Amino acid sequence: MLPGGFDGAKAMTRDLMVRAAGGAQTVSVARLDHAAVLAAMCAAPREASVVMVVPTTTARDRAAPLIRYLLDNGPVPYTFPRWPRSAESPYEEVAESPFAAAARTGALGVMSLSESPFALVIDAGAFARRVIGFDAFMDGVYRLERGRELDLTDFAEHLVRAGYRRTSTVGEVGEFAVRGGVVDVYSPIAQDPFRLELDGDEIGTLRVFEPATQRSSRSLTCAWGVPAWEVPCGPGAMREAMLRLRGLAAERGVPSADTALVESELEQGRLPLGFAAMLPALQSGMDLLPAFLPDDAVVVVADPEGCRAAADACLDALETQYAELGEEPRLVAEPGTLAVGGDESLNGLASRPETLFVPLAEEGGFLGPASGSILDAGLALATASDVPVKQRVTAISGWTRSVLDSGQRVLFTCPSGAELRRVSDVLTAEGFDLSQAGRNGLAELFRAGEGVRIGIGRVREPFGMDMLGIALVPSEAVFGIKDALAVRKGDRRGVSRLKEHRELVPGDLVIHRLHGIGKFEGLQEVRTGGRTTECLRLTYKGGDRLLVPVDRADLLDSYTAPEEGAARRLDRLGGQSWIKRPRSAKKAARRIARMLEAIYARRASGTTHAFAPPDREYREFEATFPHETTTDQERAIEEILEDMGRDRPMDRLVCGDVGFGKTEVAVRAAYKAAMEGKQVAVLVPTTLLAEQHRLTFAARLRQTPVTVESLSRFKGSADSRRVLEGLKSGGVDVVIGTHRLLSKDVEFRSLGLLVVDEEHRFGVVHKERLREIAATVHTLTLTATPIPPAHGPGRDPRPVHYFNASQGPPGRAHVGCPLQPGTGSDLHPEGVETPGAGVRGAQPGGGHLRFRPCRFRIGAGGPRRGRPWTDVLVRTGVRDGGLHQGRQGRAGLHHNHRIGAGYQHRQHDADP
Which of 550, 521, 526, 551 has the alpha carbon at shortest distance from 537? Predict the structure, then answer.
């Protein structure tokens, strides 16, 4: 083990960095993860920024989490800018997301302006790509501080030239809003937007605010802003850029109409198709990333020869793609203006101080050879995905004991607190005495002592260093990679949250919690006490008006009128109608509750099998779930298992959107029931859903002794008889089926759990049969359909688990396109993937709008070569069922990613 712990590490790296101060140094290590540790060791003691260059994107995905784990929770807060993935080729004629451009400029801003150190891992191909010139970038940078004079008109014009979009309310990166003397800006360099208020001509206050609530939080003394795109910012620079663009167009033979279209899109603040290929023509000069690095930043090039070869390969690919274009009239720059080769990319670092070239040598080097424990066959077995989880747990236990016997330490890392608790239960059951590891990853590597420690941290692959006497194993290597949650703050940037007042249009009805139903008339600025406040103006019966500040919009709910004429039923300010309405609703709720009380009293008096608490095998099974469970999932699972442990029949309802993890809740309950000899029936309304659930259950339970079968019209007569016999004899543990499961010929040997998916899709007769079955077994109901007030509390006494809509699956794709009802108008481009052709055959009728199936191309700008047609069925006019979703009943796909599939595909037979 390294003598002196962390102090010894500082002594080792101090001499190395002293030599590097005079120019680049070369030092070899055994593995890529050793190079990442070396980078962190050189940067952390000096509180310096670090950039690590690796040959491939695969190596980047391995090294970046390790770098972050080592530096994220140290004594000095590090920033981790995200360098976005670019398109396969800049010569592809695609529309790049404005958020990708903002992510690049934000990362460049962190590198050149941040006062705290940063850490970036980048592949050699991206490192060799040219970026906006440093001087041009700085032209778009601005610094705001309290007490400084500010010309609001000039500032707004500057933001527009820098690529910002002016909106009424800021919710996304690259937006700004001006309301009197209040300006909101969401700069790409910042995690959250900031709000400044003018006091005369000076900046009086400067605060960070939360986009979802629009409420200010902490104060700032200053704030940096960077360009939101890579187009020149100054008016003179823009004119010069247009002249260079026209010169390229003349050289390539591009029609003047196409050039004018590109200029028009740039003037309107939109990135044209193929923007990346024309960027060199817009800039007077391009730079490489090192131009933005501070002088004291540590640059570590892992496997220099591999990086050099990767950069050469990227440049060769660009040259091939450019040659394939031939004389095609397109605005594209030559490959040499877009990227450089490996020699030019790395040779420029040779004379740069604080630079380390780190070749990989199998025999070892600066940090010793590769750890023998990491190459052990036991660890290979424990991290093999095709091995049953029980064998993996046995293998990791044996391997851990062998490492401890050799005098080394073992550190387990888990991606979240919930996963840490789960893995701790598994390892404790194996007989290990665990101690809690700190969040400072670099300090954990050099911590003295022995034994097994477990802590929170995201590392992709196991690694070890004999010199440090430690072997690190991420829990995901044993139990599978967990998908990161979309609710994490860093992943939310660029995604606008749904705010009801942003979706309102004049004439919409709203409900004020204190004053009742009023009509929204628009926004109005009110100046009081020397400051301007934006308010929502509401009109009530008799012409009375109420102004509600935007920051109190949480007092309002959208109201959807269920019948004709309801729009005229406004409440009177100070009247009795709104006071009486809740009273009558409470009386009706009590009447319904008494009726249901009698029904559920009969069920509560029954008894059923009580399952044992979760054991070691159950904890091992749940650890194999390939996603990170949300807080809502964890709570639902634990409470369901607690109810299943009682001898009173459970009856619970889980409500969440499609893809939010309801099925996993059912899988874990089914596994628990089946492992105690009880059978599970999963009832679904359609054959397609039955097949989908069969595949999901079979995949999750494939490494367990649980037998999964299905029963629907997909099954032939012989297969159906075989499944029925298996249910009767007990050979089938879990059966997934449609209404067929409710037939009289279906007999269970020992049914212990009934899972019902989308109960509202079943008819009255089927529901009566369900009540007969559910009277003596534990029952779990799942639904993706929002429960309207008429079906909610007061009508249904079951405990309900709601899965929060903000915890959606990461990476959900969407197509945003506002529709003009009944006009057959074009779908307006909005977002990365947007339709560019019109909707054909729009027909209004019966108060509901339906759009016939239409074909359009994905991508703004209309039909283009190489972009396939896509069939899309667009439909609006969702009937009201008491669901308050603002304009949802009048919008087709507009902002559909904010509502969720469960809200979009609402089932009509759920309406009262």
Answer: 521
Q: Are 243 and 232 in contact (CB under 8 A)?
A: no
Quick count: other Cβ atoms within 10 Å of Cβ 567?
A: 14
- Cβ partners under 8 Å of residue 721, min gap 6: none
Angle between the N-to-C axes of helices 275-282 and 235-252, in degrees from 0 to 180, rounded to the nearest 10 = 120
Tokens linked to 545: 């008006």
Q: Which tens digits make up the pLDDT trace of 312-367?
A: 999 999 999 999 988 889 999 999 999 999 999 998 898 888 899 999 987 777 88
Locate the DSSP E strands across 19-67: 25-26, 50-54
Q: What are phi and psi of 165, to 5 degrees?
A: -105, 130
> Whose CA is closest to 609, among 638, 645, 651, 640?
645
What DSSP character marks residue 567? Answer: G
How far from chain centre, in Å, is Cα 879? 30
Q: Say if residues 285 and 322 touch (Cβ distance below 8 Å).
A: no
- 35 contact partners, CB below 8 Å, separation of at least 6: 29, 52, 63, 300, 302, 303, 358, 360
Q: Dihedral angle at the C-alpha atoms of 69, 74, 76, 77, nearest 10 degrees? A: 40
47, HSE (Cβ side, Cα atoms, 13 Å): 6
Ordered DSSP codes for 192-229 = S-EEEEEETTEEEEEEEEETTTTEEEEE-SEEEE--SS
Instruction: Give ∠ CA 661-664-666 in degrees, rounded to 5.
Output: 115
Longest dimension (CA), the chain: 87
Instruction: Give the pLDDT of residue 414.
Output: 92
Model pLDDT for residues 602-637, shown as the tens digit of each residue? 666 778 889 999 888 898 888 888 887 888 888 889
Closest CA to 178 of 496, 497, 520, 534: 534
Give the integer Cα–Cα distance in Å for 809 and 662: 12
